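Example record

The entry below shows one chain as it appears in the dataset: sequence first, then structure tokens.
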Amino acid sequence: MRSALSPANLPVVKLDAIKVAIQGELGSFSHEAAEHMVPHCSVVPCARSGDVFDRVKNGSVAGAVIPIENSLAGTVAEHADLLVTRDVFIQAEFGLRIVHNLIAAPGVKLGALRRAFSHPVAIDQCRDFFRRHPKIEPVPFYDTAGSVKHVLAEGLRDAAGIAGRNAAREYSGRILQKGIEDDKGNFTRFLLIRRSRAKSRTGAPRKRLAAATATPYQRLIPPGANKTSIAYKLKNQPGALFKSLSVFALRDISLSKIESRPLRGRPWEYVFYVDFLRGDDEPARNALRHLSEVAEFVKVLGIYPAA
């Protein structure tokens, strides 16, 4: 795929200087996705998701690659929330097949293991493995690749990490078992995001525009964009959801995803997340204008080529 962080789109950044932030350690699935989406980039690992978005905001990285949805575990809730509250824009998506491997220090045998560290989501996706090996205790860890880094750095001889094969390469580990995930149809959708708004000379961001179609995102739309992600909140009125969906149905716009999430700071109020299969064309712009008439707010999260 053509990277949205190419020199043509980032005239002030040289190709060998492009920095892309990820949440997690080097060798993680996010690292692998970043290398697919922005070839030859310099990956900047961050401990927390908030740090990733902070780096995008302050311009210390050109963009970030974040997981947004897993085909088994569903939406990554924290990232969905941050897309609404932070001034970022989605420029690309990428689907990565997730293969979990049991990785230990060289010389360690499977029979010696008593613990397996990994991210809770990864552990949950390997239930059959732990059922077959009841002597191995699953231990939640902050990151898949980080678990391998921990096992190797501490010289643990009774433990392993569960991560992608790149983690074994990154930290000189040995793969004891490949493909231990329960479901081989395990994919994660990653997003490439960039800062959505320029700053003024005083450093203050531009004033937020109320209407979704008035926001200055056009300059960030990559060539071939045919998918749009939005978030919106409805007024608590009868038929509000029906009216919001009708703006797409009336224009024959196909929705590829819709879900709701709690609105942080406002108990029992919800934000709807919608992906629809149109780019920045007249029907899509008219639909967004129409939606803004029935919604309390509408935010365009990104317009990008569908993976």
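Notes for this example: The chain has three domains: 17-97+186-197, 101-177, 208-307. The two ends are 9 Å apart (CA to CA).
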